[in-house]
Amino acid sequence: MKITHVKVCNYRNLRNIDIGLAETVAIIGENNSGKSNFLKAITLPFLTDDNTHVSKKLSWSDINNETKKCYYNKIIENQIRIAPTQYMWFHRRFKTRPAGEAKFY
Fold first, then answer.
1. Can you spell out the DSSP letters for the chain?
2. What are the residues whose beta carbons fall under 8 Å from the beta carbon of 86, sequence distance 6 or more?
3. Rounded Cα–Cα distance for residues 57 and 47 (Å)
4. Collapsing DSSP states into helix, strand and coil, what is residue 56?
């Protein structure tokens, strides 16, 4: 089997990678640029829980941070649509403080 094309979306620090591979591939980059994560993403489909100490199951820490932010924003936006008056109460409560009281932020 020969891998000729790799696409990785939202895995660790890799947001959206789409790469065609040649016969020989060299992975070069700065520290924390995603070289090891790219290799882990390639090997992930071939892992089984029986033959390795690395689990094939993904955890929340394997999801890209920018994707997590989008996920939480969608949840918040959905809750605001469901109960806009509660959001406005909360917003006024924590964004405007009576004179003389300490700020939260």
1. ----EEEEEEETTEEEEEEE--SS------TTSSHHHHHHHHHGGG--TTS-SS-SS--GGGB-HHHHHHHHHHHHHHHHHH-HHHHHHHHHHHHS--TTSPP--
2. none
3. 10
4. coil
**Which stretches of 1-105 are assigned E, i.e. beta strand?**
5-11, 14-20
pLDDT digits (tens, 9 = 90+) for 21-56: 999 999 999 999 999 999 999 988 887 766 666 677
Beta bridge pairs of residue 19: 6
86-103 pLDDT, tens per residue?
888 877 777 776 777 776
pTM here? 0.65
State both tokens at 19: 């790469």
